[in-house]
Amino acid sequence: MTNVDLSTESAAAGGSPALGGYLAAPPGAGPFPAVLMIHEAFGLNDLVRGHADRLARAGYLTLAVDLFSDGGPRRCLVSTMRSMVTGRGRVFTDLATARTWLANSPLSTGKTGVIGFCMGGGFALLVARDGFDAASVNYGRLPRDLEGALRGACPIVANFGGRDTTLKGAAARLETALDNLGIENSVKEFPTAGHAFLNEKDLGPAVFRPLMRVMGIGPDPESAPEAWQRIENHFARYLKGQPPSTAP
User: Fold this and answer.
1) What is the pLDDT of residues 74-107, one digit of tens each?
2) What is the CATH class of 2-240?
């Protein structure tokens, strides 16, 4: 588990000059299938690193890219969210740079997936047709032109929370769009879960946490194990060529 410097590759491509990330590698010599991880709006923190470590233990070379490398969340969040809406901007160059670096790593088999949470889930949808073999979208915002953005996408597994007041109806709309486009998918809405339910603890300033709970934002230990198993089954199928596991 180590921090990586992607600044040379990113700057050459016109991306963020200080782009970096956190690389979690499985035990052993490899090579391994790879996964690019895109963080939430709070940035590349210990929770996201924990998610990367989890996928590494499942056998995936996982790069959690830091989209806020050039100034942190306060300076980068607004422009990054604007890029999600417009579908343009440096963030897409950064993601492409990170995907190429990961796929070309001597530890990688070349098979590469993408996974995102919250803000990162929205970006995972937007780049699912950009050279990835599989995508995992977790309570991500849907693009305005949903079918237009998803046309040609790789197979997608998506997890949403039924108590997530910020994304009402998103799971059904996404499933319909993917079915209409003939894209392999598995979309599920967990009735007891809210936004950010895969996190092991609450995020954000303590003063806002009661409000976040009212809005349906926070961990759900009952739903998270199944959602993670769905993610691992999806990547095992499309990145490893393995049948799904029935483990809880």
Assistant:
1) 778 788 888 888 888 999 999 999 999 999 999 9
2) alpha beta
